[in-house]
Fold these 2 entries.
Entry 1:
Amino acid sequence: MGCKMEKVVLVLLFVLPLALADLRVGFYSSACPQAESIVRQVVQKRFGTDRSITAALLRMHFHDCFVRGCDASILIDSTTKKPSEKSAGPNFSVRGFDLIDEAKKSLEAACPSTVSCADIVTLATRDSVLLAGGPSYDVPTGRRDGLVSNPNEVNLPGPTLSVSEAEQVFAPKGFTLTEMVTLLGAHSVGVAHCSLFQDRLSDFQGTGAPDPTMDSSLVAKLKGICGNSKSNDPTAFLDQRTPFALDNQFYRQIMQREGVMQIDQELAVDKSSAGIVSQFASDANGFKKSFASVMVKLGSVQVLTGNAGEIRRNCRVFNQPK
């Protein structure tokens, strides 16, 4: 039995990497040498007028990769006859699709039917991370676009999960606890709607009182944002000090009980993750290196390569048979 199991393990170790064999840095160097520079220029242009685009692209990339893998299925538009992932609740506030459209239009003009929408999302996210002060890193390309986009498959980690519950979502995708804590460092940029944390401000878990793990001055500040706005569901920065910079300030803040969303604060409170948070809080370069590594790994989740899937001509719709 032991020998048989060992053979199975060896076979798995040999076979699994083959799925990623066609992903490589510089995949388009011959077929479309200007591909990465075209995407970079589009991102730079947008970042110049909207620094929040980094958070938007990080969210889009994560929401795409965690459903069917990084196959651009999140980009497909819903129709009256067939809903797509965009119609799932967690994706209602995902944005930045027009940026992907702009990059795709330029790429189709330069290299028709060559660069996948999945690679555009991955490259655009990488470029936006650097512009926000995050790490510079190379990403392998060669992804293909998926042929399915089903809203019923959208099952993403919510903001009220405990660390152990969140682990149960990340582990099947191949991420360790440290990598999960690293990925959640993306909350160093971006905002959250008040509806996602409102209960922490006044009636945490039905207690009729604020979440005791949240700093009282932050509670007061967020009450002002959420309670006095004319918006139906206003937003607050997840990082209250450097909201447009992808840095390790997020970890310092949650150590000071200044996490806006419950899952963020849980990272600093839970014994299993508190040490990781402390390490990142004191080591800015260490966090950047870890973030670069985990973003490359995220972009490799369940990718389609070779002859699988397709190269969409329009990122919002599947190709029609010629």
Entry 2:
Amino acid sequence: MTATLLKEAGPQPAAPADHERKRRARRRARVIALAFVFPALLLLGALVVYPVLFSVGRSFFDASGDRFVGGDNYTEMFRDPATLTAVRNTAIWVVVAPTLLTGLGLVLAVLVEKIRWATAFKLLLFMPMAVSFLAAGIIFRLAYDEDPEKGVLNAAAVSVHDAFKDASSYPNARARDGQGLTKAADGSYGTTAAASPGDTVGLGLVGVRAEDLPGDARPAYPASGRKASADELRGVVYLDFTRGGGGEQGKVDRTESGLPGMKAEAVRDGKAVASATTAADGSFRFQGLDPGSYTVRLPASNFAAPYEGISWLGPALVTPAIIGAYLWIWTGFAMVLIGAGLAALPRDALEAARMDGANEWQIFRRITVPLLAPVLTVVFVTLVINVMKVFDLVYIIAPGPVQEDATVLATQMWLVSFGGGNNQGLGSALGVLLLLLVIPAMVFNVRRFRGSQR
């Protein structure tokens, strides 16, 4: 009877001892959790919070750190041309690099699904991620070298150029002073004395090393003695230099070589009326000339400097060149992340679109891209955060003379603080600016992650 009455009365309040025991258990759990979290919090505070607070405080002091200057460092920061260049280049990086990487990653992720050796292809593209930025910078510094003998890109550019346009064989050739040839403003050489049909002229040049002569070059002496017919003008272009000394300047000696492959023109009244190319012995001839006086001209194309390629690391191209190196490293990262999102897409939507007659481009544009929008956004924002902090590639690839043309906020902060400027107040202000630019992207990314988890 008593038990029945207690049951009908409902649950009895817990004894004070039970409440105290539960309170102690909760307190003990909090202490244990805090004990586990404390080392991480301590490390986070020492490596993140303290440096940020110190940099903010340091940005209000002068270079020595002894005098409070308020916002002067922030004012000076936007007056300095180098800092404005860094802001401009950082903006270029933020717009160009993440956009190209996200686009390339998307295209490659879609294409990789359609090839047999997808795993091997992904491995090859992702492999540059295993290379440090220092090593990648050194690799691309060599690849971009202006000397075609060292830089692979310029070697390829020179090969393609020379395949379509012949290079001059005598870029260093020149005429001796007072030996019958004068140099024009356009780089060509012409005879000072007039010649008429039936004459033979000798055009002596120097500045060509014997080892640089073409393999088919022959002695010029036999050609210099040939007589021209009444309607032709003959000549010989030769190297006016005798090995071992001796010989006579301005005259073809027996051991002197002809210069084959040179273009020569007969000029009358300022116009070229005939042209010829020198033979192996340096000889040439103009036939069918009308009576009168002519000058012989060697066009500037005979002496044009060889094509040396593209100045990849010059002021105009240094930033795009470094962005190209960055793309080489991070394309695999973007492709793998987007590929993971692509693998999670509902295949029934794609198959339904195909059954309705949609082609692959329509499926890609109207179904694949919209469904991948959350993944693409996360990849894009992650890359934006990353490019804002880029330092290694810019510092290593850009040569000293163009370092200021390629500088970004991270490199400018280092240069101002430690790279010769020794103004850590201004450098701290640049660091705070970089932090303020990164925070919105970080907050956006965190919210996206939380939204995807819900």
